[in-house]
Specification:
- By secondary structure, this protein is of the alpha/beta class.
- It is built from 2 helices and 8 strands.
- It has helices at residues 2-28, 135-156; strands at residues 38-44, 55-58, 61-71, 78-84, 95-100, 107-112, 125-126, 128-130.
- A hairpin with a 6-residue loop joins β3 (61-71) and β4.
- An 8-stranded mixed sheet has the order 7-1-4-3-2-6-5-8, with no helix packed on it.
- The radius of gyration is 27 Å and the shape is flat.
Protein backbone atom coordinates (compact mmCIF):
# COMPACT_ATOMS: atom_id res chain seq x y z
CA UNK A 1 0.00 0.00 0.00
CA UNK A 2 2.94 2.33 0.64
CA UNK A 3 4.25 2.15 -2.96
CA UNK A 4 0.77 2.66 -4.35
CA UNK A 5 0.36 5.88 -2.31
CA UNK A 6 3.75 7.23 -3.51
CA UNK A 7 2.80 6.64 -7.15
CA UNK A 8 -0.44 8.56 -6.69
CA UNK A 9 1.37 11.46 -5.02
CA UNK A 10 3.93 11.61 -7.86
CA UNK A 11 1.17 11.54 -10.49
CA UNK A 12 -0.63 14.37 -8.68
CA UNK A 13 2.61 16.39 -8.53
CA UNK A 14 3.17 15.93 -12.28
CA UNK A 15 -0.39 17.11 -12.99
CA UNK A 16 0.14 20.21 -10.83
CA UNK A 17 3.45 21.04 -12.55
CA UNK A 18 1.83 20.72 -16.00
CA UNK A 19 -1.14 22.89 -14.90
CA UNK A 20 1.25 25.52 -13.53
CA UNK A 21 3.13 25.46 -16.85
CA UNK A 22 -0.12 26.09 -18.78
CA UNK A 23 -1.05 28.93 -16.43
CA UNK A 24 2.36 30.57 -16.83
CA UNK A 25 2.14 30.26 -20.62
CA UNK A 26 -1.38 31.74 -20.66
CA UNK A 27 -0.37 34.75 -18.56
CA UNK A 28 2.81 35.37 -20.55
CA UNK A 29 0.99 35.26 -23.92
CA UNK A 30 -2.29 36.94 -22.99
CA UNK A 31 -1.24 40.27 -24.51
CA UNK A 32 -2.83 42.13 -21.60
CA UNK A 33 0.31 43.73 -20.22
CA UNK A 34 2.46 46.52 -21.53
CA UNK A 35 5.87 46.11 -19.92
CA UNK A 36 7.04 49.68 -20.35
CA UNK A 37 5.50 52.91 -21.43
CA UNK A 38 4.40 56.32 -20.28
CA UNK A 39 1.12 57.45 -18.66
CA UNK A 40 -1.40 59.84 -20.18
CA UNK A 41 -4.82 60.92 -18.92
CA UNK A 42 -8.12 61.64 -20.63
CA UNK A 43 -11.46 62.96 -19.31
CA UNK A 44 -14.76 61.49 -20.50
CA UNK A 45 -18.45 62.12 -19.72
CA UNK A 46 -19.20 58.37 -19.88
CA UNK A 47 -16.89 55.34 -19.88
CA UNK A 48 -19.61 52.66 -19.85
CA UNK A 49 -18.05 49.23 -20.38
CA UNK A 50 -14.41 50.37 -20.30
CA UNK A 51 -12.42 48.38 -17.74
CA UNK A 52 -8.99 48.65 -16.17
CA UNK A 53 -6.68 46.55 -18.33
CA UNK A 54 -8.67 47.43 -21.46
CA UNK A 55 -6.79 48.02 -24.69
CA UNK A 56 -5.53 51.32 -26.04
CA UNK A 57 -5.22 51.08 -29.83
CA UNK A 58 -4.07 53.09 -32.80
CA UNK A 59 -5.43 51.91 -36.17
CA UNK A 60 -6.55 48.66 -34.52
CA UNK A 61 -3.08 47.83 -33.13
CA UNK A 62 -2.69 47.57 -29.36
CA UNK A 63 -0.25 50.22 -28.11
CA UNK A 64 -1.16 50.33 -24.43
CA UNK A 65 -3.72 49.65 -21.75
CA UNK A 66 -6.04 51.40 -19.30
CA UNK A 67 -4.41 51.55 -15.87
CA UNK A 68 -6.82 53.58 -13.73
CA UNK A 69 -10.32 55.08 -13.68
CA UNK A 70 -11.44 57.77 -11.19
CA UNK A 71 -14.10 60.46 -10.89
CA UNK A 72 -13.14 64.13 -10.79
CA UNK A 73 -15.13 65.43 -7.78
CA UNK A 74 -15.45 68.94 -9.29
CA UNK A 75 -16.55 68.14 -12.85
CA UNK A 76 -17.96 64.63 -12.24
CA UNK A 77 -16.15 63.42 -15.32
CA UNK A 78 -14.34 60.09 -15.48
CA UNK A 79 -10.55 60.53 -15.57
CA UNK A 80 -8.92 57.58 -17.30
CA UNK A 81 -5.20 56.93 -16.99
CA UNK A 82 -3.69 54.96 -19.84
CA UNK A 83 -0.21 53.62 -20.42
CA UNK A 84 1.19 54.00 -23.95
CA UNK A 85 4.14 51.94 -25.19
CA UNK A 86 7.52 53.66 -25.35
CA UNK A 87 8.57 54.72 -28.83
CA UNK A 88 5.11 55.99 -29.80
CA UNK A 89 5.17 59.78 -29.71
CA UNK A 90 1.65 61.13 -29.87
CA UNK A 91 0.98 64.67 -31.14
CA UNK A 92 -0.61 67.10 -28.69
CA UNK A 93 -3.85 67.16 -30.74
CA UNK A 94 -4.38 63.38 -30.50
CA UNK A 95 -8.03 62.39 -29.98
CA UNK A 96 -9.20 59.57 -27.67
CA UNK A 97 -12.48 57.79 -28.36
CA UNK A 98 -14.11 54.94 -26.43
CA UNK A 99 -15.14 52.37 -29.02
CA UNK A 100 -16.84 48.96 -28.94
CA UNK A 101 -15.02 45.85 -30.12
CA UNK A 102 -18.33 44.45 -31.35
CA UNK A 103 -22.05 44.79 -30.68
CA UNK A 104 -21.79 42.68 -27.53
CA UNK A 105 -18.04 42.96 -26.90
CA UNK A 106 -15.99 45.07 -24.54
CA UNK A 107 -14.80 48.61 -25.03
CA UNK A 108 -11.35 50.03 -25.72
CA UNK A 109 -9.78 53.44 -26.27
CA UNK A 110 -8.99 54.28 -29.88
CA UNK A 111 -6.35 56.99 -30.32
CA UNK A 112 -6.37 59.12 -33.47
CA UNK A 113 -3.06 60.99 -33.74
CA UNK A 114 -3.31 64.57 -34.97
CA UNK A 115 -0.83 66.65 -36.93
CA UNK A 116 0.63 68.92 -34.24
CA UNK A 117 4.43 69.22 -34.10
CA UNK A 118 4.56 69.13 -30.30
CA UNK A 119 4.16 65.73 -28.62
CA UNK A 120 2.41 64.73 -25.41
CA UNK A 121 4.74 64.33 -22.45
CA UNK A 122 4.23 61.64 -19.78
CA UNK A 123 1.35 62.55 -17.49
CA UNK A 124 -0.20 65.14 -19.83
CA UNK A 125 -3.91 65.01 -20.64
CA UNK A 126 -5.43 64.13 -23.99
CA UNK A 127 -7.85 67.03 -24.43
CA UNK A 128 -9.92 65.85 -27.43
CA UNK A 129 -12.16 63.00 -26.24
CA UNK A 130 -15.37 61.25 -27.23
CA UNK A 131 -17.26 59.27 -24.61
CA UNK A 132 -18.71 55.82 -25.08
CA UNK A 133 -22.07 55.54 -26.79
CA UNK A 134 -24.77 53.66 -24.88
CA UNK A 135 -26.78 51.27 -27.02
CA UNK A 136 -29.71 51.57 -24.60
CA UNK A 137 -29.78 55.37 -24.95
CA UNK A 138 -29.65 55.14 -28.74
CA UNK A 139 -32.55 52.66 -28.80
CA UNK A 140 -34.55 54.84 -26.42
CA UNK A 141 -34.06 57.91 -28.61
CA UNK A 142 -34.99 55.92 -31.72
CA UNK A 143 -38.18 54.57 -30.16
CA UNK A 144 -39.14 58.06 -28.91
CA UNK A 145 -38.56 59.62 -32.34
CA UNK A 146 -40.58 56.92 -34.12
CA UNK A 147 -43.46 57.36 -31.66
CA UNK A 148 -43.36 61.14 -32.11
CA UNK A 149 -43.28 60.76 -35.89
CA UNK A 150 -46.25 58.35 -35.83
CA UNK A 151 -48.26 60.72 -33.63
CA UNK A 152 -47.47 63.69 -35.89
CA UNK A 153 -48.39 61.71 -39.01
CA UNK A 154 -51.64 60.53 -37.47
CA UNK A 155 -52.48 64.12 -36.50
CA UNK A 156 -51.81 65.37 -40.02
CA UNK A 157 -54.26 63.00 -41.71
CA UNK A 158 -57.00 63.51 -39.10
CA UNK A 159 -56.90 60.01 -37.66
CA UNK A 160 -56.34 59.25 -34.02
CA UNK A 161 -52.78 58.50 -32.86
CA UNK A 162 -51.96 54.91 -32.00
CA UNK A 163 -51.72 55.60 -28.25
CA UNK A 164 -55.24 57.10 -28.03
CA UNK A 165 -54.04 60.65 -27.34
CA UNK A 166 -56.01 63.45 -28.97
CA UNK A 167 -54.59 64.91 -32.13
CA UNK A 168 -53.46 68.55 -32.09
CA UNK A 169 -56.43 70.91 -31.99
CA UNK A 170 -58.80 68.14 -30.84
CA UNK A 171 -60.41 68.11 -27.40
CA UNK A 172 -59.72 65.08 -25.18
CA UNK A 173 -62.52 62.54 -24.99
CA UNK A 174 -64.65 62.63 -21.82
CA UNK A 175 -65.14 59.37 -20.02
Amino acid sequence: MGRHGVAEVLAGAVVLVVALGFLTYAIAHSGRSVSSGYPLTASFDHIDGLNIGGDVRIAGVKVGSVTNEVIDPKTFQAIVTLNVRDGIELPKDTAAEITSESLLGGKYINLSPGGDDTVLKPGQPITITQSSVSLEQLLGKFIFSVTTLNNAKAGADGSKPADGAPTPGQAPANK
